[in-house]
C-alpha cells in the first residue's frame, strides 16, 4: 500500500514526480515517454502527409522542376511568383473565383439564416426538419455534381422539362457564359446552405429567452427584437460559418470539373481548376507549386483580417 | 493540390536519374515466367476497353494459361492524368499503357515507355501494315500524313484503329449520304426544317479531352487548312490562315446553328444518345464508340438491329477541298517502370496480338485492327456496318501534333473552340487566340519560370 499523497501543495510539480507509477505499468516508460508514444503516430502522419509536402512544395515553387520531365530542379527564385501575379490568365480566373465566392457565400448566408430562423421558431418537428435539411451536405461533391449535371442538361434534364411544362423556353444552364457560373453558384448553394443553417441554428437556440421576454413586456415589435437581440447575438457565430464557407468556396474544384469543365471556354475556370491544369496538363510542377502557395497565402491573409474583425466585434 | 504534392513527393523519393529518353526493350523476348502473372493495361472507360479484356482473357490464356489480363479504366477526362501522374512517380500499376497517338512525344521525351524498335524489327511483320498506321501509333518524331520514316524509332504498336464516321438517318434524308461538306450542311438544314424536334447535326463540342479540338481539326482539314508547320514549328499564321478562318466560320456559323440547344458540352455519349433517341439527322462520332447504336435496348429507332439499320446509315466523311479524316485509335506501349517479368510478358502479348489470325479474331470481337489483311478480311468487314467506313478511311487520315507539349496545345484548342461554339468568343478571336497561345507554348522551351500559364 502506498503512502497517502497530500491534496494540496505549494510545489505541484514535486507532487507529480513523487507519484508512484500505476500498478502494472512498466517502470522504464515515464509519463513523458508515454505521452510521446501516444502522440508520435499522429505527429509522424502530420509531418509526412502535410508538413513535408508543404515544405517540399515551397521549395519547388522557387524552381523550374517538372514532375514528368525529371532531371534536377534549377532555382528560378521568384520568377514563378512574378509570372503568376502578372498573368492575365490568372487575373481572369481570380475574378471568376471572386464572383463565385461572393455570390455563393452571400446566397448561402441569407438562405441558411432564414431557414434557421424559421426552424428555431417551431416547437414541433424541429429535429426532423433539421436532419432533412442536412442531407445535401452529407453527399459527396462529385455525386452532387453528377446528378445536377443530369438535371441541368438542356435537352434531357428535369429542370428544363419542368420549365417546358410551365410553357417556358429551354435554358442552356451549363453552356452559356451567364448561366454556367450562376448554375455553379446554385448547386453549391443547394449543398452548403445547410451548413450555414446549422451554425445559425446553434446561435439562435443559444439566445437567452429572458431577453425576448423583456422585449415582449416592453411591447417591442418583431422586427425590433430581431434587429436588436437576435442578429447581434448570432452575428459572430454566423461570421465564423461565413469564413469556413468562403475558404471552401475559394478552393472550389469538384463541381467545376464535373459540371462545366471550366467552360464555356474558360469562363467558369476557378483558380483551383487552373492550378490543376498547370500541374497536370503541362506538368509544370514549379509554377503549380508557386500558384498553390500563393492561394494558401491569400487565404491566410484574408482569414487574419477577418479574425481581427471578429475579435473587434466581440470586444465591442 | 494534394494529388500534385503526392506525385511530386513520390517523384522526389523515386529513382530520379534524370533520364530524358526512352530505355530500350530487348530485341528478343526474355524468358517468360511460369508463375501466375497479371498483365495490366490502362485505358479510358468505353466499350473497346471491356471488349479487349474479355477477348484477351479468352484468347491469350490459351497460349499463356498462367496470365490474367486486367484492363484498368478511368474516365476519359482523367486518362492522360492517370497515366502521367504514375509516370511522374516512376512507379506504375499498369504494364501496358494505351496511349493516344498524340501522347507519344511526352512519354518518349520523359523516358516513360520502352523503345521497341529492335523488338519490332525482329518480331513484327511491319510490311503487313499500312505504313501510316504503324507510324501514327508508335513512331516518334511524328510522321507526315500518309508517310512513315523507316529510320525513326518505334515506341508502340497499334491496338485499336479508329476514325470518325458520318451517321445519317436514311428514313429522313434518303439512302445516299451527302458527298461534300457543303451538301451535308444543306441536307441537315432541310432535314431539321422538315422534322421539328430533330436537329440537323450532332457532333463533339465539349471542352474536355480532345472533343471540340478534333471537331475543329476535322473541318479545318476538310477546308484545306493546316494545324501547323511541323518543320518550322510554326502555328501562328498557319492554323489561322484563310483556310483556317473559313473552317472556323463554317463550324460556328453554319454547323452550330443546326445542333440542339445546350449541346455545347456534348461528347461521345451525348452524340450517341441523340442518335439513338432519333434526335439528330446527321451525326459524327468515333467508329469504335458506335456499336451501341445498333443495340435495340439503347435505341428508340427500332426493336431489332435490322430495324435500326433500316433507319441508320454509316458513311465516310464528306470531302470538300480535301478528303482528310481525323485519325483516332490508340497504340500499346510498355511502361518503363514495370517489373522485368511483366515487361517480358507485355512484349510477348504484343507479338501475339499482332499476328494475322489474332487480328482477325480481334476484329470479330469488336476491335478495329490495323493489319491490312485483317482490315480486308470478312471477319472485320462483316462485324459491323461501320467497319467498311474505317477500311475506306485509312488512306485519308490526318493526326494532330504528338509533341511533348500536346496536352497543353489540345487544351488551348479545346477551350477556345468550345468558347466560339458557345458564344463566349467570336470565331475570329477564338482562332487567333489558339494560334497565339499555342505558338507561345511551343516557343516557351527556353523560358525558366512561369511555364504552363
Automatic annotation (TrEMBL), chain A:
Compartment(s) where it occurs, according to its Swiss-Prot or TrEMBL record: Cell membrane; Membrane
GO cellular component annotations of the record: plasma membrane
Membrane association type: Multi-pass membrane protein
Keyword terms of this UniProt record: Membrane, Transmembrane, Transmembrane helix, Transport
Chief location: membrane
Region (Disordered): 1-27
GO biological process: transmembrane transport
Signal peptide: none
Residues covered by the ABC transmembrane type-1 domain: 94-306
Keyword match Membrane: yes
Keyword Transmembrane helix: yes
Listed InterPro entries: MalF_N, MetI-like, MetI-like_sf, Sugar_ABC_transporter
Residues that span the membrane, as ranges: 34-59, 98-120, 127-148, 181-204, 224-244, 288-307
Superkingdom assignment: Bacteria
Residue ranges the record marks as coiled coil: none
Gene3D superfamilies linked to this entry: MalF N-terminal region-like (1.20.58.370), MetI-like (1.10.3720.10)
Record family assignment: Belongs to the binding-protein-dependent transport system permease family.
Protein name listed in UniProt: ABC transporter permease
Gene source species: Planotetraspora phitsanulokensis
From TrEMBL, chain B:
Family: Belongs to the bacterial solute-binding protein 1 family.
Regions that span the bilayer: none
Domain of life where this protein originates: Bacteria
Pfam family, one: SBP_bac_1
Record bears the keyword Repressor: no
The protein's name: ABC transporter substrate-binding protein
Keywords, in A-Z order: Signal, Transport
Amino acid at each position: 500500500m502506498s503512502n497517502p499523497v497530500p491534496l494540496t501543495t505549494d510545489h505541484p510539480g514535486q507532487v507529480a514526480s513523487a507519484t508512484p507509477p500505476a500498478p502494472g505499468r512498466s517502470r522504464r516508460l515515464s509519463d513523458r515517454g508515454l505521452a510521446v508514444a501516444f502522440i508520435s503516430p499522429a505527429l509522424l502522419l502530420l509531418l509526412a502527409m502535410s508538413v513535408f509536402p508543404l515544405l517540399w512544395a515551397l521549395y519547388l515553387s522557387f524552381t523550374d522542376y517538372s514532375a514528368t520531365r525529371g532531371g534536377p530542379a534549377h532555382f528560378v527564385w521568384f520568377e514563378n511568383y512574378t509570372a503568376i501575379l502578372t498573368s492575365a490568365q490568372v487575373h481572369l480566373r481570380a475574378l471568376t473565383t471572386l464572383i463565385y465566392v461572393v455570390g455563393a457565400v452571400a446566397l448561402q448566408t441569407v438562405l441558411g439564416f432564414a431557414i434557421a430562423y424559421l426552424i428555431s421558431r417551431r416547437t414541433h418537428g424541429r429535429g426532423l426538419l433539421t436532419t432533412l435539411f442536412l442531407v445535401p451536405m452529407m453527399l459527396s461533391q462529385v455525386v452532387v455534381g453528377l446528378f445536377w449535371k443530369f438535371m441541368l442538361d438542356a435537352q434531357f434534364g428535369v429542370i428544363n422539362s419542368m420549365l417546358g411544362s410551365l410553357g417556358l423556353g429551354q435554358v442552356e444552364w451549363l453552356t452559356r457564359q451567364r448561366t454556367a457560373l450562376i448554375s455553379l453558384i446554385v448547386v453549391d448553394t443547394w449543398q452548403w446552405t445547410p451548413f450555414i443553417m446549422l451554425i445559425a441554428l446553434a446561435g439562435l437556440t443559444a439566445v437567452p429567452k429572458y431577453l425576448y421576454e423583456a422585449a415582449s413586456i416592453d411591447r417591442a415589435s418583431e422586427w425590433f427584437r430581431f434587429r436588436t437581440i437576435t442578429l447581434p447575438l448570432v452575428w459572430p457565430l454566423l461570421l465564423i460559418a461565413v469564413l469556413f464557407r468562403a475558404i471552401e468556396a475559394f478552393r472550389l474544384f469538384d463541381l467545376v470539373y464535373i459540371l462545366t469543365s471550366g467552360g464555356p471556354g474558360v469562363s467558369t475556370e476557378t483558380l483551383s481548376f487552373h492550378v490543376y491544369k498547370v500541374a497536370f496538363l503541362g506538368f509544370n510542377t514549379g509554377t503549380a507549386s508557386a500558384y498553390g502557395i500563393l492561394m494558401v497565402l491569400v487565404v491566410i491573409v484574408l482569414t487574419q483580417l477577418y479574425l481581427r474583425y471578429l475579435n473587434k466585434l466581440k470586444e465591442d | 493540390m494534394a494529388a500534385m504534392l503526392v506525385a511530386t513527393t513520390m517523384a522526389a523519393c523515386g529513382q530520379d536519374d534524370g533520364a530524358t529518353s526512352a530505355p530500350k526493350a530487348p530485341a528478343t523476348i526474355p524468358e517468360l515466367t511460369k508463375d501466375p502473372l497479371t498483365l495490366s493495361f490502362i485505358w479510358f472507360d468505353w466499350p473497346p476497353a471491356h471488349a479487349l479484356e474479355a477477348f484477351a482473357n479468352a484468347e491469350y490464356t490459351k497460349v499463356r494459361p498462367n496470365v490474367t489480363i486486367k484492363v484498368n479504366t478511368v474516365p476519359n477526362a482523367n486518362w492522360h492524368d492517370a497515366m502521367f501522374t504514375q509516370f511522374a512517380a516512376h512507379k506504375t500499376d499498369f504494364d501496358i499503357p494505351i496511349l493516344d497517338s498524340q501522347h507519344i512525344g511526352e512519354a518518349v521525351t520523359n523516358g516513360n515507355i520502352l523503345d521497341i524498335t529492335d523488338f519490332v524489327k525482329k518480331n513484327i511483320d511491319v510490311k503487313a501494315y499500312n505504313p501510316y498506321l504503324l507510324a501514327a501509333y508508335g513512331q516518334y518524331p511524328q510522321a507526315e500524313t500518309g508517310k512513315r520514316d523507316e529510320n525513326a524509332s518505334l515506341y508502340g504498336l497499334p491496338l485499336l484503329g479508329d476514325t470518325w464516321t458520318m451517321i445519317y438517318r436514311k428514313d429522313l434524308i434518303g439512302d445516299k449520304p451527302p458527298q461534300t461538306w457543303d451538301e451535308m450542311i444543306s441536307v441537315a438544314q432541310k432535314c431539321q426544317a422538315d422534322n421539328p424536334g430533330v436537329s440537323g447535326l450532332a457532333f463533339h463540342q465539349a471542352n474536355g479531352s480532345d472533343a471540340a479540338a478534333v471537331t475543329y481539326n476535322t473541318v479545318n482539314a476538310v477546308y484545306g487548312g493546316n494545324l501547323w508547320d511541323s518543320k518550322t514549328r510554326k502555328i501562328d499564321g498557319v492554323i489561322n490562315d484563310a483556310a483556317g478562318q473559313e473552317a472556323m466560320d463554317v463550324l460556328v456559323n453554319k454547323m452550330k446553328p443546326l445542333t440542339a440547344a445546350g449541346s455545347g458540352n456534348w461528347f461521345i455519349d451525348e452524340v450517341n444518345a441523340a442518335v439513338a433517341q432519333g434526335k439528330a439527322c446527321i451525326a459524327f462520332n468515333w467508329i469504335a464508340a458506335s456499336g451501341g447504336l445498333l443495340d435495340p435496348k439503347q435505341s428508340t429507332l427500332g426493336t431489332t438491329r435490322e430495324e435500326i439499320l433500316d433507319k441508320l446509315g454509316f458513311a465516310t466523311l464528306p470531302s470538300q477541298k480535301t478528303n482528310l479524316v481525323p485519325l483516332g485509335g490508340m497504340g500499346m506501349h510498355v511502361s518503363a517502370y514495370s517489373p522485368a517479368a511483366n515487361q517480358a510478358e507485355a512484349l510477348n502479348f504484343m507479338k501475339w496480338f499482332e499476328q494475322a489470325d489474332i487480328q482477325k479474331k480481334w476484329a470479330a470481337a469488336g476491335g478495329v485492327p490495323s493489319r491490312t489483311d485483317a482490315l480486308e478480311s470478312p471477319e472485320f468487314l462483316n462485324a459491323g456496318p461501320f467497319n467498311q467506313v474505317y477500311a475506306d478511311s485509312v488512306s485519308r487520315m490526318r493526326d494532330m501534333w504528338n509533341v511533348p507539349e500536346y496536352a497543353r496545345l489540345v487544351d488551348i484548342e479545346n477551350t477556345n473552340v468550345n468558347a466560339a461554339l458557345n458564344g463566349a468568343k467570336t470565331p475570329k478571336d477564338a482562332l487567333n487566340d489558339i494560334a497565339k497561345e499555342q505558338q507561345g507554348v511551343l516557343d516557351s522551351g527556353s523560358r525558366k519560370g512561369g511555364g504552363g500559364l
